Amino acid sequence: PRTLLCLHTESQCSKAPVFKPNGDPTALSSNVGSTAMLNCTALLPWEPREEQCDTTLQWTRDGQPLANHTLHTQNTSTSPAAGQLMVNSLLMITLSQPDDFGLYSCTVRNVSSDFYLQSPPSHTAAVIAAIVLLVLLGVAALVYSRCHLNIKLWYRNSYGDYELNDGKLYDAYISYVNNDHDRKFVNFILKPHLEKKNAYKLHLNDNDILPGTEPSAELLMNMSRSRRMIVLLSYAYLEQDWCSNNFRQGLLHLLELCQRPIIIMLEGQSKRMRPEIKRHLNEHQHCLTILTWKHNSVTPSSVFWKELALAMPRQVIYRSETAGDPQTVLQDDKAPILTLNPDYLDCHSDTDPAGDLGLRLPVYKARACRAPVLPPAPITAAEPKPSEIDVSDLGSRNYGARSDFYCLVTEADM
Known about the structure:
The chain crosses the membrane at residues 125-144. By secondary structure, the chain is α/β, with parallel strands linked by helices. The protein has 9 helices and 14 strands.
């Protein structure tokens, strides 16, 4: 018997092509109005004796065949070796409109090589956004530079803490030299603005607040009553003997008495300060609030008054004039030492100079009530008074501590 052996070999024309350089998708960028060139090269297995051998490169855009007159192709082919054919197609595209961009594919034998033709990323939006951001930052910086004091005042008055229930009777202690110029500035400019416009309570003192020696007990007591300390550091203030000899020691004493004292200097006089005084003030500037009174500081909306308001305690706003003192009203504190004009602390003369009759006046004044009406007692003849004091009722007398002659706070201290 005969044996028939059939050998089946794969046709060269059915093998997949190899695109050059690697066949990976390529991204290209071009502008509208320019010409883009797409170069597609493929190495095909080829057999010249086969009639039906596909060697033509076909171009498509987004899956559709190209039919645009703005597209031009140039096809070439070479045979680098036996059984191989190198085909090349150069596509030239005139980008006249945005629709010309897209995905271009070069296909042969059902295998494609893709080209992403896209317009370059536009930086117009980013540039506009950057310009708008810079303008907003500039406007914000300008507004803050002009209105930062108003913003700080609004925040402090809206969300700041009240310095209440601390036992202080005054908001500020003002020290100045008792001469004509400084006295007029304090009494006709500084005091009316703080007391009438902002309802602050001030304690004025024309004595030295920066002593060259240890501070006196009176000074410490006055300072303990005040929440802030204001020093009018005028030229006359600096011309005092103790200040001329040892300003640094006095400044250190000042910082011991108050955490952050407020120093007010006059514009014309501050220029005549000695260099060592300016140097000491600059060294301790982080511990001081230094304000300068200028020629344009008279108006209530000036920078001077805003900076001074920031350095002062938060202002308490009352709904009525008879709302009372915040020490006793807002904090519900009934301590007698914190009440300015209590009736039960009035100092009167002794109602019984001959001695205690066993009667005690109430410490807190109670509401007066009408005494009961009693029937009339029969009238009897007056008995003669004994010439000597009767000591038989001494055991029933009240020998407790007297309270009607204590006076903790006087009007002079207010």
